[in-house]
Write a structure and sequence with these properties.
By secondary structure, the protein is an alpha+beta fold. It has seven helices and six strands. A hairpin with a 7-residue loop joins strand 1 and strand 2. The N and C termini lie far apart (about 70 Å).
Length: about 210
């Protein structure tokens, strides 16, 4: 999905549409160009957690990186101090593999701040509506309110499958190796019978 984003407010509004749900306490990486993937992880609050996250994404981003590749880092949390530490640490890590961090933001439920310039602003309904309208035009479904609700929406109706379980179990119980062997022999006999009939028919036609 390619969208024109004009402000930090709109960049934050894009995130639920990219992920399919509205994330909380998350670290999100948004590509500024098409060669890089987008990714979201739970906000890593300890040095160990940050190392684990970096180990899990480094190879993927290294493979896709090209000269001039860049991304945005968005920390979604009420804890701005942690967001500042995490954002700058991952900015330095991406720089080490040749990926520039063009935007580094913190956002809570209502506000945003640029972690490089300290510019701040409010998350507005206008930005959310513009991004929502733009994504509708691309045919994308609107995001759910949480990751759990997204997972629930992906679960199909179990009742039709459950209704067939007893019949399927009985068929599986009866489908023994002996039964499969008898079926295979019957199919082979039928095949050879058809082949002989075809050969006989062909010889009569030639003689005529």
């Amino acid at each position: 999905m390619t969208l024109s984003v004009r402000s930090p407010d709109e960049l934050i509004a894009v995130i639920p549409h990219l992920l399919g749900f509205k994330p909380e306490e998350s670290l999100v990486f948004l590509p500024m160009s098409s060669e890089l993937p987008a990714a979201r992880v739970n906000l890593p609050t300890t040095p160990y957690d940050r190392e684990v996250v970096w180990s899990s994404i480094r190879d993927a981003y290294s493979r896709h990186a090209q000269p001039g590749s860049s991304l945005a880092i968005v920390c979604l949390t009420a804890d701005r101090e942690t967001a500042t530490d995490v954002g700058h640490e991952f900015g330095a890590r991406f720089d080490s593999i040749g990926i520039d961090t063009r935007v580094m933001l913190w956002a809570d439920g209502t506000r945003w701040a640029d972690l490089d310039t300290d510019d701040m602003g409010l998350q507005t309904e206008d930005a959310r509506e513009r991004i929502a309208a733009a994504t509708v035009l691309t045919g994308r479904a609107q995001p759910t309110t949480s990751r759990d609700s997204l997972a629930e929406s992906l679960v199909g109706d179990r009742e039709p499958v459950a209704a067939l379980l007893s019949e399927t179990r009985e068929a599986a119980r009866q489908n023994t190796p002996q039964a499969e062997g008898r079926w295979a022999v019957a199919r082979m006999r039928r095949f050879h019978g058809v082949s002989r009939a075809g050969s006989d028919g062909g010889s009569h036609s030639t003689e005529g």
